[in-house]
Amino acid sequence: MSRFIHSLADVQTEQIGDDTRIWQFAVVLAGAQIGSGCNLNCHTFVENDVVIGDRVTLKSGVCLWDGIRVEDDVFIGPNATFTNDPTPRSKQRPEAFQRTIIQKGASIGAGAVILGGVTIGAYALIGAGSVVTKNVPPQALVRGNPARIVGWVDESGHKMQRLDDHRWQAEDGRMCAAHNETLTLEHG
Prior knowledge:
By secondary structure, the protein is mainly β. It is built from no helices and 25 strands. The chain has strands spanning 4-5, 10-11, 21-22, 27-28, 33-34, 39-40, 45-46, 51-52, 57-58, 63-64, 68-70, 75-76, 81-82, 100-102, 107-108, 113-114, 119-120, 125-126, 131-132, 140-143, 148-152, 161-162, 167-169, 175-179, 182-185. It has a 9-stranded mixed β-sheet with strand order 1-3-6-9-12-15-18-20-21, with no helix packed on it. Strands 5-8-11-14-17 form a 5-stranded parallel β-sheet, with no helix packed on it. The chain has a 4-stranded parallel β-sheet with strand order 2-4-7-10, with no helix packed on it.
């Protein structure tokens, strides 16, 4: 098994996939599960009840708290912040932490804040500094405080071109329709 763990990282879990790199001053607790081909930059923290898929990138300053699930091919930018307790109090743990799910291929920009209990849909793109307070649909481009849908992206993260109130075109020419915060591929 080939993986790299910097000598200045504190990694307590054995559940780390092949080709994963964990850099200096990262802390990974014993219950965490990390997939293959991941890159955890310096100054990251992964708590016990966290599952990270394959080919995930955590940039510096990211802390993943209990209850967070990160699927394959997710990018989390520097200093993105997650919460997992809607009413935090010192020395008072909830019975269960909120479950936050970041689906396959999603990207979260630098400094974004993700409130606990939300799902960020597959391939969604969260703009830098956004505050996500509710679920984000797959392939949605959101930004602002609170984060709102401002467009749609393809699976590569390229912004789709708006053709009219409901129709969008991907870079490769595919046509999609957006209704009620849902993007669907048009056939024909």
